[in-house]
Design brief:
CATH architecture: 3-Layer(aba) Sandwich
Number of helices: 7
Radius of gyration: 18 Å
CATH superfamily: Glycogen Phosphorylase B
Number of domains: 1
Helix content: 40-55%
Strand order of the largest sheet: 3-2-1-4-5-6
Shape: globular
CATH class: Alpha Beta
Strand content: 5-15%
Largest sheet: 6 strands, parallel
Structural class: alpha/beta
């Protein structure tokens, strides 16, 4: 049976060609025994992997239900789509220094989510390759330990959503509060 690896870059207008190239390299290395499908959005379409600019929610849910491994950018919505389908997503955060996003929030989010075991963070092509190999070959075994200190969890999607929500509250709570122009106008009566 052919294994299925699904990669998603979301709908952001910034290209994420770095991840697409990594997925093509992975598809070439894994060969015909692994089918690699990439939702590439505004990025250049893959040359080796099967590519789709965008997928409907139904198509995405169907792919995720059949996937053996999921790779995605660091968007919280995309991460939760993978988690809700029962996956420990392998995340590659978009890098604003490479023109992949407007700021570093994905890098901060993925680092935090990786520390808590909600995602497996891949910072390099080698990390991605190692994590996909682990997911395809070792993760199902109860005694397998994930590489790079990733916590493999059999937690439920509801628990993962709750945990992610708490971590996001902590992450956002650590940022200085900015008052909107309405808040400045109203003084201490800030609208939320």
């Amino acid at each position: 049976m052919t294994a299925l690896v699904v990669a998603m870059v979301g709908t952001d207008h910034h290209p994420f060609d770095r991840l697409i190239t990594w997925m093509d390299d992975l598809a070439f290395r894994l060969g015909p025994d692994v089918h690699v499908v990439v939702q590439h959005g505004a990025s250049t379409a893959p040359l080796v992997a099967e590519g789709h600019a965008f997928l409907s929610q139904h198509e995405l849910a169907e792919l995720l239900s059949r996937a053996d491994a999921v790779v995605c950018h660091g968007g919280p919505g995309t991460v939760m789509d993978a988690r809700n389908a029962g996956h420990l997503p392998i995340c590659v955060a978009r890098d604003p220094m490479r023109g992949e996003h407007v700021d570093g929030h994905q890098q901060r989010f993925v680092a935090m989510a990786g520390r808590t075991g909600l995602v497996a963070e891949a910072r390099s092509r080698a990390d991605l390759s190692r994590l996909v190999d682990w997911t395809l070959h070792d993760a199902p075994a109860s005694d397998a330990s994930p590489p790079l200190g990733v916590t493999a969890s059999g937690d439920t999607p509801a628990w993962a959503c709750q945990r992610l929500s708490g971590e996001l509250d902590l992450l956002w709570g650590s940022r200085p509060t900015r008052r909107s122009s309405v808040g400045r106008f109203l003084g201490s009566r800030v609208l939320r």
